[in-house]
Amino acid sequence: MVEEGKAGTARTGSDGAVRIAAVGDLHVREDAQGACRDLFAEVSREADIFVLAGDLTNLGKPHEAEILAEDLRACAIPVVAVLGNHDYESGAVDDVIAILRQAGIHLLDGQTAEIRDIGFVGVKGFIGGFGPRMLGSFGEPAIKAMVAESISESMRLENAMRQVRTARTLVVLHYAPIVETVAGEPLEIFPFLGSSRLAETIDRFQVSAVVHGHAHRGVYEGRTPGGAPVYNVAMHVTKPTGRPYALLEI
Question: Does the domain formed by 3-249 have CATH 3.40.50.300?
Fold first, then answer.
């Protein structure tokens, strides 16, 4: 069961629910020292767990990751995250990962983390398109390589899902698993915003909720074909909280 919260209300969830704040696409820059500190402190007061849905940095530079790690000192609750495409831009992803994990972030890349009896499962995801118009593995080697990467991310998600032993599960992605939550973006870029292969994997399991980012002009809420609730928590997407982050009770 997922209930949407509003910022400024009591932190304790109904029926023992755990309150999760989620946001994507922070795009922390080298010249933005301390820019997220107040937001992270607010999240600590509003939620039990904080989830970051990729594009943590703007250009994937280690210094940007260091600034994010320093700002997260203001966050007194557990932090779960996945990377996004921006975090790969500078070819220093291993350094970015090391910095964030050293800061105590549960950075998931095909792994799971159990916090407060909730299983968090995270992968970045990849492109490929949605429904019957998904890109198929046909033609040039470059196309086949793209499809292979999309399938690989879905398989890594499935392998991680099989490790979950909790009754409640939150899937954390960067790329969208459904087309509904990217609506509002230009139609021409829909295939580059996510892939239905992720939703196909999710629907093989019992999932409490899914969060993703990446589609800055998308919409907040949708569902997989199997009925799992999906939330686009990209920072610029309008949310019920009226704040950059969503609040979910699971």
Answer: no
37-55 residue pLDDT tens = 999 999 999 999 999 999 9
Strand partners of residue 51: 22, 80
Residues 100 and 75: beta-carbon distance below 8 Å: no
Closest CA to 96 of 52, 126, 127: 52
pTM over 0.90: yes
Secondary-structure percent of the chain, ordered helix, strand, coil, rounded to 5? 30, 25, 45
CA dist 169 and 229 (Å) reads: 12
Question: In a 3-state reduction of DSSP, which class is residue 95?
Answer: helix
Mean pLDDT in residue range 190-196: 97
State the Cα angle at 85 between 175 and 3, rounded to 5°. Answer: 35
Any bridge partners for residue 111, and if so which? 122
Please choose, from the candidates 233, 232, 231, 169, the residue with its C-alpha nearest in 3D space to the C-alpha of residue 201: 169
**Residues 6 or more apart in contact with residue 78 via CB below 8 angstroms:** 48, 49, 50, 106, 115
Residue 81 C-alpha from the chain's centroid: 7
Domain ranges of the chain: 3-249
Amino acid code (one letter) for 105: I
